[in-house]
Design brief:
alpha+beta; seven-stranded mixed sheet; five-stranded antiparallel sheet; 6 helices; elongated
Length: 364
């Protein structure tokens, strides 16, 4: 008996979710034949069989999350395991069709074969049904009623891949950070139609970090220690159908507008294709969220530790502002700065936001 474990998928990934098994118990496989598809926070990955042999047991079902080094499958026939198994990638938009996960919770339930078949067809768990039949048996009416109740609540959708990683990060942030948000508005009437909003926001963050470096920092609560950064590695929040990505623009203070725009386009393409290296999704020292392109004016944003701040830009709109003694209609950009109050004072946050606004008010 040979046991094959989930191999190292690279880039520091520690776990993956089973998307589909391409083999079943009793099947004979050959080395390098597609064995199982798993999803990480980046992409769907197809893992080949490490050897030839007969599949004796599958240790995980579809939807299960498996950590690196955990047993995946056992082979009845002895053969040398190829320790150099190559992990390949298939496009995230065309994953293999998931197979149904077998459950055993209904074995002790009283139900006729016909009722069990009906439950399988309707996707109902017999163990979760209140039986109304003789001697506590589940009836066809019970199954149909349970299926109707589930349908009326809408389809349950387990979180996977990027969305699951996002949920875990948000939970961790909620438990760890003491968030406070300050808001203000920047008069951007000096901008021209050619101004790139994202680039202007990046430049404003650079100016604000120079004026108040305390927000370009990490805080480590276990050591009660903060680390100020000389370099600004800016996280750019990107919304996708798969979930939230926050790739990093490195050393933004030393990049010009053309370089920043080119790098942003490259990152955007990488996110769409799920090909961004994991290293480029880590190490942000501060984050920008330009949520106004979708809607909303102000927001209480989420700070992901060990960062201590995130700046958000809302929907730009025209407002009446005072220029000297005269009312003038100018475009105004709402700003929201959320910071970890354990490491950043209100004065530091206010100075940072004021410096960002002053930079945004300037012409190109």
């Amino acid at each position: 008996m040979t046991i094959f474990k989930l191999p190292d998928l690279g880039e520091g990934l520690q776990e993956a979710e089973i998307v589909a098994w391409h083999v079943g118990v009793g099947d004979r496989v050959v080395a390098d034949q597609p064995l199982v598809s798993v999803e990480t926070e980046k992409a769907v990955v197809e893992i080949p069989a490490p050897q030839s042999g007969r599949v004796a047991e599958l240790f995980a079902g579809v939807g299960d999350t498996v950590r690196i080094g955990t047993p995946l499958v056992s082979f009845a026939d002895q053969a040398a395991v190829d320790s150099g198994t190559v992990v390949g990638t298939i496009p995230a938009e065309t994953p293999a069709k998931p197979t149904a996960k077998k459950g055993g919770g209904a074995r002790g339930v009283k139900a006729s074969p016909a009722v069990r078949n009906l439950a399988r067809r309707l996707g109902v768990d017999l163990a979760a049904i209140d039986a109304s039949g003789p001697d506590g048996a589940v009836t066809a009416r019970d199954v149909e009623g349970a299926a109707a109740a589930v349908a009326s609540r809408g389809r349950a959708e387990p979180l996977r891949g990027v969305r699951r990683a996002m949920a875990r990060n948000m939970t961790r942030a909620h438990a760890a950070v003491v968030p406070t948000t300050v808001t203000d508005e920047a008069d951007v009437g000096a901008w021209t139609p050619k101004d790139d909003v994202t680039i202007r926001l990046i430049r404003a963050i650079v100016a604000a970090c120079r004026a108040e470096p305390a927000l370009n920092a990490w805080y480590f609560s276990d050591r009660e220690e903060r680390q100020l950064h000389d370099r600004i590695d800016l996280g750019i929040a990107m919304d996708t159908e798969d979930g939230l990505f926050v790739p990093v623009l490195r050393d933004v203070a030393k990049r010009d507008a053309a370089d920043l725009r080119g790098r942003l386009e490259a990152i955007k393409l990488g996110v769409e294709q799920r090909s961004v290296p994991l290293a480029e999704l880590r190490g942000q020292t501060i984050t920008l969220s330009n949520f106004g392109m979708h809607g909303g004016r102000h927001a209480a944003l989420v700070v992901l530790p060990p960062q201590v701040a995130i700046l958000g830009a809302g929907r730009r709109e025209k407002r009446v502002v005072a220029i000297g003694d005269k009312p003038v209609v100018h475009p105004v950009l709402p700003l929201s700065l959320t910071f970890d109050h354990r490491a950043v004072t209100g004065g530091e946050a206010s100075r940072f936001l004021s410096a960002a606004i002053e930079d945004l008010r300037q012409p190109t």
